[in-house]
Amino acid sequence: DKWMYLLLHIHEMEDIPSKFNDPLFTRLFMLAEISKFTPEEKKQYDKSTENMGDYLNTITTAVEDAKAVGKAEGKAEGVELAKVAINMLKDGAAIDQICKETGLTEAQVADLQTLL
Predict the structure, then answer these.
(1) Which of 1, 73, 81, 87 has fewest C-beta within 10 Å?
(2) pLDDT digit string (tens) for 10-66?
(3) Is 103 helix (H, G, I), strand (E, B) or coil?
C-alpha cells in the first residue's frame, strides 16, 4: 500500500512523510529530487559525486599505505628488539630483565632462547 500511495503522490510531496521513514524510501526520495535537476545541476551533482569518490579513494589509499609502512617499521623494530634480546640472553641476562628492557613478552624471549 505504501508503494502504491508513494508512486501516485510523490510528485505532490515536499517533505518525506513519517510513514516513509525507512532508508529505502529515503533513497527513493533522494533519487526523485535528483531527477528534477536541470542539466547544469545534474552535471554539478555528477562532478561533486565523482570528486567525493576520488577523495574517499585517496583517503583509503593513504590509510592502506600508512598501515603498510607501519608494518614494515614494526617488523624492522621487532628484528632490532630480537637482536637485543638475543645478545642479552648470550650475556646471561634474566628473562624478566630482558622483557623490561625490550618490551617483549616472556613467551617471545623464551622462543628466542630456543634459537640459541
Answers:
(1) 1
(2) 878 878 888 888 888 888 888 888 888 999 999 999 999 898 888 778 777 777 776
(3) coil
What is the DSSP code (8-state) at residue 96?
A: H
Q: Which three cell numbers stand for residue 38?
A: 536541470
CA gap 33, 36 in Å, rounded? 5
| Distance between first and last Cα of the chain | 76
pLDDT value of residue 53: 85
CA distances from 14 to 17, 32, 33, 44, 58 (A): 9, 11, 10, 22, 36
pLDDT given for residue 40 in this prediction: 95
CB-based contact 90:116 (threshold 8 Å):
yes
Q: Residue holding cell 515536499?
A: 14
In this predicted structure, what is the pLDDT of residue 55? Answer: 75
